[in-house]
Design a protein that fits this description.
Length: 367
């Protein structure tokens, strides 16, 4: 009998496997998946966070499709979300899981990005992993921003209005950007329609291929070894195969992530406020979502210190410079033998973490 690479030892399973393998080349795929080894050391915990981000993204796809069955964009947006929350069986749970998982995903992506940064996994040959990751982070944040408006309740309406102040403070093109995003001079039905198209068609169409590219790069290059472990002689370094050993550990982490999500979604169900009323005054303390809070606070503070256009230009200028420095770090810190550049990059990383946390906390403090 022909030797089979079927992962299950069973006569019938082997027959099915061989049938598919001859036609689809499954053994080659399995060999590609089995090639990768995952290093084992005291920082290995941080290797799970890319997988956790992926898990929450999968939850988003599943719960998002379920919400799509009842959600109606445009003038009926609020009413359809009211029905999902109060009339449809388990609708509240699906909606709550979708909203909590969106926040957990952005949180996991941030942890993943900063751990990748501090482990210097952006160095050659992983530069494209870094850049594709930045693209995924940007898209994940736009996913969150566009989804937040869709229920069209009071909070969604005013939070979107203040959130739009960030792109609208771009010098020269700001007002045009605002009109383009809103579909008119005010946030309304047309904005919901636009955000819906962005949220369920345009963003997934950009995100999924970029994610495939990102994951393919990880499979191709394997996981980076952090600088502290490089001193260990190659023969003494420990590693385990990704498939199936590390993947099983990933699955255990996914189960923990699922439990955290289930607890949050059921104990703290996502609320639906009163419908948006554009002529009512904005409720006190309105602010964008937590992952936009640092930018929002910086713009607010600079706007107070340097009233008018100067504050806006300074704010947008600082983000742009910060974003560029963050993106080109693999070009600057590109050689593990250059200790000075490595140290400067580490300071930049810690500075960015401290700056983001401080600005976000400050933003909530002064609400
Ligand atoms: C939804 C967004 C993302 C998903 C689903 C994702 C997924 C993954 C997965 C599964 C891995 C392999 C396991 C690991 O090392 O954690 C990985 C590795 C990597 N990711 Fe991401 N990622 C995302 C965003 C990002 C971001 C924002 C960055 C940085 C800007 C980034 C940069 C990298 C790099 C450089 C690696 C290679 C790490 C290494 O070699 O150790 N990723 N990603």
């Amino acid at each position: 009998m022909q030797k089979s690479s079927c992962p299950v030892r069973n006569r019938y399973a082997t027959a099915v496997w061989n049938y598919a393998d001859e036609r689809l080349g499954l053994s080659e795929l399995l060999a590609f998946a089995g090639k990768k080894q995952v290093p084992q050391h005291k920082h290995s915990f941080w290797y799970y966070w890319g997988g956790i981000s992926l898990f929450f993204f999968l939850v988003q796809c599943l719960t998002g499709v379920l919400l799509l069955v009842y959600y109606r964009p445009g003038a009926e947006a609020y009413e359809s979300v009211r029905q999902i929350t109060y009339d449809i069986e388990f609708g509240w749970l699906v909606r709550s899981a979708h909203s909590w998982s969106a926040n957990l995903m952005v949180f996991a992506v941030f942890v993943h990005m900063f751990s990748v940064f501090l482990m210097k996994a952006y160095r050659k040959p992983r530069e494209f992993g870094w850049w594709s990751g930045l693209g995924l982070l940007g898209l994940a944040m736009v996913f969150g921003f566009s989804g937040y408006l869709l229920p069209m309740d009071e909070l969604a309406y005013f939070a979107t209005k203040v959130g739009l102040e960030i792109p609208m403070s771009t010098p020269v093109i700001g007002p045009f950007l605002g009109d383009l995003i809103r579909g008119g001079p005010e946030v309304g039905e047309h904005t919901v329609q636009r955000f819906f198209a962005l949220h369920v068609v345009i963003l997934p169409a950009l995100f999924v291929p970029l994610l495939m590219f990102h994951l393919w790069l990880v499979q191709r290059h394997g996981n980076a070894i952090p600088p502290g472990e490089e001193a260990v002689p190659a023969a003494e370094r420990e590693s385990i195969p990704f498939f199936p050993n590390f993947m099983m550990k990933d699955v255990a982490m996914w189960l923990i992530a699922l439990n955290v999500l289930a607890l949050l979604a059921s104990v703290y169900p996502w609320q639906l406020g009163p419908p948006a009323n554009p002529i009512a005054p904005a409720p006190l303390g309105i602010h964008p979502e937590w992952y936009f809070m640092s930018q929002f606070q910086l713009l607010k503070v600079l706007g107070n210190w340097f009233p008018g256009i100067t504050g806006e230009i300074l704010g947008i200028g600082l983000f742009t410079i910060g974003g560029i420095v963050w993106a080109v770090i693999p070009l600057y810190d590109n050689d593990s033998r250059n200790g000075r550049r490595g140290r400067i990059a580490t300071y930049i990383g810690f500075g960015a973490i401290a700056g983001l946390i401080a600005l976000t906390a400050w933003g909530y403090w002064v609400l």
